[in-house]
Design goal:
Elements lengths: L1 E4 L2 H9 L4 E5 L2 H7 L5 E2 L6 E2 L3 E6 L8 E12 L11 E14 L3
Parallel strand pairs: 1-5
Antiparallel strand pairs: 2-7, 3-4, 5-6, 6-7
């Protein structure tokens, strides 16, 4: 399970259900973490399937920092400005399918 740090503004929006995607830059650090979950062709018709996996978004670096565990899929695409993306920039797009657990939120 991946644990990724996240700023409070985006963390709160995910917990509230308002934000349905989180973005990470396309660079070697994330290439190695996300590549195995990327969509892959499944047959000659170019149908694709992406693996579902769990990500813990943590607002801070302490063991007791607020966190949200989400079921996600990852793709590459353009993010939404209102959710923190730079317009026109390509990102790893972590699509949040379901919030599984929230901890240490006051």
């Amino acid at each position: 399970m991946l644990v990724l740090p996240i700023k409070k503004q985006w963390f709160d929006m995910i917990v509230s259900g308002e934000k349905k995607e989180e973005y990470r830059e396309i660079k070697p650090y994330y290439d190695s973490r996300f590549r195995k979950y990327m969509p892959r062709p499944t047959n000659f018709r170019n149908e694709y399937i992406a693996a579902e996996f769990f990500i813990v978004f943590r607002n801070g670096y302490n063991y007791n920092s607020p966190l949200v565990k989400c079921r996600c899929i990852v793709d590459i695409g353009i993010g939404k400005k209102e959710w923190g993306a730079i317009p026109g920039q390509r990102y790893y797009v972590l699509k949040i399918l379901e919030i599984m657990e929230v901890q240490n939120v006051n």
